[in-house]
Design goal:
By secondary structure, the protein is mostly helical. A two-stranded antiparallel ribbon has the order 1-2. It is built from 5 helices and 2 strands, in the order H-H-H-E-E-H-H. One of its GO terms (molecular function) is DNA binding.
Length: 122
Amino acid sequence: MTASLSPDMFDAACPTTVMPFQIGDKWTAMVVLCLEGGPRRFTELRVPLRRVTPKVLAETLRSMERDGLIVRFAYDENPPRVEYSLTPLGRSLLTLVAAARTWCSEHLDELLEARAAFAARP
């Protein structure tokens, strides 16, 4: 069994939340990070991704499955149990996401200043 996901995995100060580029959509990189340690259920993903609505998370997971980044495995149990896990293609994004997070950490102040300046424009 894998360790529980932290509800603070993506807190407001996390560089991933201000990443100026996205893989697929706003949430894909975060889902990739959540699945790095192994398969997860939808409810487990909701813990650190609490800001995403269930509908949007479901759409993100479907898109990722369509693109071959994750696999969805439905167990033949009662009640039903579904888990999501990274494919080798999805796992290949971990290096890219790590590099993007590092870049965001190194340039976080500049990004925030630029966004503030943009918002202050008339």
